[in-house]
């Protein structure tokens, strides 16, 4: 089973490389159509896949992140420069707070990029922190909060508190979610923030709701739902796994 999964990862990697542009970005077409979203998505995916296979070229990921960093506006925000034809892949991402947060998470989750592009990250964080009071969309706030958590930003708690205030409790408070157009992805980013904040008990109702949204295959309806949803559930499981709570008590 592990070999089969690794082979599928390898096939996906080889197929994705067909869409790599000469400048290190990734696009819709094989030789054109560079996209900020797709480049961030591929860099993040490859970063995750590198834990399970040795085929991933770290220099390729680094160059993709370098390209992303070069696309930041003076204001600190990121906007799309290309066109994403398959909108279901993009989830709730759009220009401004959401896409800026998405790019920042890609940079922050890479050990090399978060040092190499520290100035870019700081500028992006300044943009997000200046926008916080104006954010009233749960999706935008959810992904922005996760970026702030990864960065250890001074207003990360303020962002998380505001996000929690937007949530909906259901099933006698056994479930918690965020009611918006992209509610699975939004709730998944929220769970990632709960894990980063070590709010594991508070995160259990969020986890319960996410688990109940899965299809019979174990995945979620859309690409971004599946990518972020499974990531959040995995991170949460790592923290609340029974194996992490085994203790030996020595009586004297």
TrEMBL record:
* Pfam family membership, one: TED_complement
Q: Does the keyword Signal apply?
A: yes
Gene name, per UniProt, is TEP1
What's a single GO CC term here? extracellular space
The UniProt keyword set, sorted, is: Signal, Thioester bond
PANTHER family in the record: CD109 ANTIGEN (PTHR11412:SF136), MACROGLOBULIN / COMPLEMENT (PTHR11412)
Which source organism? Answer: Anopheles gambiae
Return the protein name: Thioester-containing protein 1
Task: Extract the InterPro entries matched here.
Answer: A2M/Complement_sys (IPR050473), Alpha-macroglobulin_TED (IPR011626), Terpenoid_cyclase/PrenylTrfase (IPR008930)
* Domain annotation Alpha-macroglobulin-like TED: ranges: 3-235
């Amino acid at each position: 089973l592990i070999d089969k999964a690794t082979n599928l990862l390898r096939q996906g990697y080889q197929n994705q490389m067909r869409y790599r542009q000469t400048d290190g970005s990734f696009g819709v077409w094989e030789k054109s159509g560079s996209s900020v979203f797709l480049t961030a998505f591929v860099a993040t995916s490859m970063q995750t896949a590198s834990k399970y296979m040795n085929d991933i070229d770290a220099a390729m990921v680094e160059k993709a992140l370098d390209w992303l960093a070069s696309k930041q506006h003076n204001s600190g925000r990121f906007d799309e420069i290309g066109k994403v034809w398959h909108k279901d892949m993009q989830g709730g991402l759009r220009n401004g707070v959401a896409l800026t947060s998405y790019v920042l998470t890609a940079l922050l989750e890479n050990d090399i990029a978060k040092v190499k592009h520290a100035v870019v990250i700081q500028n992006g964080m300044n943009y997000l922190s200046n926008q916080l009071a104006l954010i009233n969309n749960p999706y935008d706030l959810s992904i922005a909060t996760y970026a702030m958590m990864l960065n250890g930003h001074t207003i990360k708690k303020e962002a998380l508190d505001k996000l929690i205030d937007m949530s909906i409790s259901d099933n006698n408070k056994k479930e918690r979610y965020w009611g918006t157009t992209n509610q699975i992805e939004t709730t998944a980013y929220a769970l990632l923030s709960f894990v980063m904040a070590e709010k594991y008990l508070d995160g259990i109702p969020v986890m319960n709701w996410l688990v109940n949204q899965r299809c019979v295959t174990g995945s979620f309806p859309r690409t971004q739902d599946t990518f972020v949803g499974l990531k959040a559930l995995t991170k949460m499981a790592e923290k609340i796994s029974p194996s992490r709570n085994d203790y030996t008590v020595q009586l004297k």
